[in-house]
């Protein structure tokens, strides 16, 4: 089964991707993982990407797409995969469609994790990171009454990209770049949206239920 997972920042894509990929016995493929593998492996694409990453710039589409093409061509992805973080826009989606068509394949499903903006802001702006062990706590979900890590005693701080104004900007970028992707896949007839609010286990149940017709 070949699946793409989409949704705004804070929708829980990374968490759900792990569960879904494990359930389907397919590799979870994220652009972050691909970037790290290429950079640490010293590949030509990795060297190109690192130049942009070191400057804090976005890696160009052509480099990202080349990395994704290579990864999808690996043996473990031949019979299926779950893509998390790619495609991010309609041009990337059109290119992915062409790549899969070259291999006589196509996407089976695009699963959209649906969550409203207020919930995203609450989820992300409430996160606090330990400056010693790196564990992430949440001021609401973990019932934290102080700024001390319960695991190691380190100090908890709010990362810049978790601040409310930054989260709002990330949502604006998502609406501009990635939301049209949802319409693209809806037009393709392969989009299924699920409610991504509530406990992680409940969201996973909804996701697996959406996949069930394809498994029969």
Automatic annotation (TrEMBL):
InterPro entries with a match to the protein in the record: Adenyl_kin_sub, Adenylat/UMP-CMP_kin, Adenylat_kinase_CS, Adenylate_kinase_lid-dom, P-loop_NTPase
Pathway in which this enzyme or protein is active: Purine metabolism; AMP biosynthesis via salvage pathway; AMP from ADP: step 1/1
Binding site for AMP: 31, 36, 57-59, 85-88, 92, 159, 170
Residues reported in the UniProt entry to bind Zn(2+): 130, 133, 149, 152
Signal peptide: none
Keyword Transport: no
GO cellular component: cytoplasm
TM regions (residue ranges): none
Catalysed reaction equations from the record: AMP + ATP = 2 ADP
Principal place of residence: cytoplasm
Stated family: Belongs to the adenylate kinase family.
Protein's recorded name: Adenylate kinase
Organism (species): Actinomadura syzygii
Gene encoding the protein: adk
